[in-house]
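#struct-pred

JT: dropping the chains for the assembly here, can someone run the whole complex?
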Amino acid sequence: MADPMKIRASMVGDSTEVKVLMNHEMETGQRKDAQGAVIPAWFIQSVTVTYGGKTVLAAQWGPAVSKNPFLSFKFKGGAKGEKVTITWIDNKGDKRTDEATIT
Amino acid sequence: MPNFARRGSSLVALLTVVAIPSVLAQGTTVDEIAKYRAALQDGNPAELWEARGEELWKQKRGPRQTSLEQCDLGLGAGVVKGAYARLPRYFADADRVMDLETRLVWCMVAQQGYTEADAKKSPFGNGNAKKSDIEALVAYITSESRGVPMNVSLAHPKEAAMYRIGEKMFYFRGGPHDFGCVTCHGEDGKRIRLQDLPNLTKLEGAQKAYTTWPAYRVSQGELRTFQWRLYDCFRQQRFPELLYGSDASIALTMFLARNANGAAFDAPAIKR
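RK: done, full complex below.
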């Protein structure tokens, strides 16, 4: 199973700022290993962030996103003590969901 | 004639135009790299290593199924906070001066029951699937010293001896290129490609360099420890391989750590 994400969510004025670090190889499929064999592509394809049952961010990612990606964004609303849930799914179907409390 | 002169002056003008941007370019390149680092600072993936390291520190592992929480890093068994700012140091139980990584290997052998070969088997991750446990542990332990002023002691004779050996190594020139640490790190304004190199013979350079290792290397996708830093410097100098946890590596670490005394530790950092 994939390693956990590191999530920080904090209130800035009337919106919530979310910062996420994800643990992922993000292999492009363009690289070759020492033997010259192509390393198969392996990257996060979709990222979904929900708050209070509503999707506040949905993203489709490709192989151009870096290894161990960092994502930062704001959404309007949110309240201290409430939870933000983040899910990613990669092209192998592996997925990981983590949540964080807004501070 | 007038025509000729005009051509001459326009050539001078052209040269000036060309010359100015190249002088500016050097300044801006350094600035741009600094900006790049600042932008990355916010989401430093080293935090992922820190989290994994904390788990490894607390997990019961090895043939004896014990956690490393009994490991004494110099401030008492299991005390992690501020421990790195005082390393390397002399440990009476091992009768040896040790840096953090050597000490971790020692604890893994003495307390968790690993063989030394197993504990040292893969100290450096390869940027892909092969991850190093020691790199993660180092990330966690060093993160617990963030903000703590460096305070390395030379009170024990063995510590003082290590420092002297490290100093000698730093200034020693050898190998096929007649190179030494001091070749790159003894003057201001030296570079490898676009990377500015710190002048380690000055207090400011020595402090800034030592307090920002370990670091996440973006180009390698790995968190790199101080042992790795020295290992790779030796490789770049075409010196014989610096053995992991050898007295030579500890001596050089001791020299550099002690010279950083007084500066607040600020790692795991992020580097290009």
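JT: nice. The radius of gyration of chain A is 15 Å. Strands of chain A lie at 6-12, 15-21, 44-51, 54-60, 70-76, 83-90, 95-101.
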